[in-house]
Specification:
Length: 432
Amino acid sequence: MLGVVFDVGDKLNAELSTYGSNITVQPKSDAVVSDLYNTEGSDAGTSGGSASASDPTSFLKESDAAKIKTIFWAFNITNFAPELNQHVTAINTKPVTEGNGWAVSLADYPTQKNVPVVGTWFNKKLKLASGETTVVGVEGMRSWWSLQGRWPKDGTKEAVIGKDLAKSLGVKVDGHEDEAAVQVGGTVSLMRGDKSIDFKIVGVYDSGDDDNSAMYVSSNQLQDLTDLPDSVNKIEVKALTTPENDLARKAAKNPAALSQDEWETWYCTAYPSSIAYQIEEVIPGAVAKQVRQVAALQGNVLQKTQAVMILMTVLSLIAAAVAVANLMVASIGERSSELALLKAIGATDGAVSRLMMAETAAISLLGAIVGAGLGSGVAQLIGHVVFGSGITMRPMVFVLVFVLLAVTVLLASASSIRSILSLKPAEVLHGR
């Protein structure tokens, strides 16, 4: 249980982080507007913000996005993806006029409309200044999406389209009864002014939210179409974080209000606010904010799970103490004649007590070794069943277990030792 307690934080953070980013980076002007009009919550509620009715007017440099992996907590940044959100005219250049089970006609499904398009990275390989490489993009950020087909290749004229938008554009929609199966293979032309680019639809996704009405393409293609070179209006970041406490909340309000010791503790702890602060330090003109709903969920789930595990550990210790006490009482009862004889021939209370404690310590040590092996095995079983991966058994777990075991055995043996001290050899030997 203690092994799970010490490792459950990383497991839960990794598990919950699969459901989207927990930090968003945007231009300062957009952050001011969202604070003034309280639009942060609505933005946080959508995975990509593609359903916004208006196009952004301020941007960050896409080339600065890789700097996120240069901060102090770079290894905690598991993924990120820049986004350019724009509305452009979409035309299905190869409409399908009939389906299997129900018709798809140009009258029912107009093939030209103004649609939200997101330019982003899908599975981009970055080479960092340290010489290391990392792979980032929405393929890892949208793991909960249901995708038919495949993800596009970065830098190509390939795209994935939301299920609702695919149906409205008539992009090879077939279905029967209440179940719709959207197939890939169509071509959609995106237009802005006198520019147009034809994109091959290689995948159709179902996000379960407003993103189903959007289309995702490579960022460089949308930048070229909209004359916005090296521009993005948002960067979504997925990071492994430590649940917030009073220090983190104080720093989130005003880092300048921290004392030197508080500052060092906060800056060197993977709080969402400290990671966001360090991102702001490396990306010019950016404001990084944690997605409050995700951060609060991670903190609450982690605290409750750890509380349950600690309670189970305490109950296990109590059960062990009761078991040791009962075994000691039974052992003394069975060996009362032997102990009384020892005292009758001159053994002191201390000598008899040490003998019993030495035997108990030897049995406890053997039980601890066997129990450590069995407990580690059960912890791995819990990890694979619940989290799909093993539990990292830290050395501190074994040290703590042996300390707790020693304290438990001493407390459980205290009552039995007292009964040894009160043992009267004459009465015991005479069978009284």
